[in-house]
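Human: I hope this is not a bother. Would you mind checking the protein record under this note? Thank you for your patience.
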Amino acid sequence: MIARFRLAAPLLAAPVVAALSLPATAEVESPWSAPEGTAVRLIAGAREGDAHRAGVEIRLAPGWKTYWRYPGDAGIPPHFDWSDSDNVDRVEVDWPAPARFDEGGATSIGYKRDVVLPLKVVPKDPARPVRLDLALDFAVCSTVCQPASASLALDIPAGGAGPTPQELETAAAQVPRPAALAASGAPAIEEARLEGTGDAARIRVTARLADPAAGDLFVEGPTEDWALPLPEREAGRDGRTVFVLPVDGVPKGASLADVPLRFTLVDGRSGAGPAPAVEVTAPLSTP
């Protein structure tokens, strides 16, 4: 089973927050909360239908990292507590495409630069303002990893917070788009297959990428109890890219044949723009 969190010790105290550039807050932004190595705030944008657009902005000091919703071999994902919010029915979190990085022999998934996590905030009563109150627990890493927490609050008018900040628009464009298995174009996942049995069982994923030598794949189970390994790349044919991972980190009693998995395929970057990415939820095929 893969370890879900590895915390190095002792924790280092360093004046890294001073290296962060923290712009002045505006009406659509909460004050910054600045744990060591990072700074966090809430931002809000336009209303769309009955929901508000918002985001959690995480600034990182140079050389620091933070984790995706599934952290990989080692790490801890962010945990969001919205329970003290007012007039909030639910908050949906989107995740820009992540990258993998090495942490002393373990491979983790996350962000090595500043990131905004887009939010969809659905009020209980669309005619009333929203008080968004977040207790955020997450982790950041430099040469060591350490837990961090932030308490943030932002008032959003009933009609929305006005124009959506550019950083939130940019982050939304980096969120993998939902796609079907065997969809046309690139990036796309052509097939996800379960091969072999017992200790030899593995998952084989065939993908199309704009650059077959670039890009990456991340595979998640249906619940947080799953801890699937990060895939390795194999040589493919006809310009395809093949990713393979052993069957490990499956909860006791669960069956890969009975549940869909979530595949996030990130294409290689071209130019300065964000890497295109897709998210496919599908069951594995079997021989």
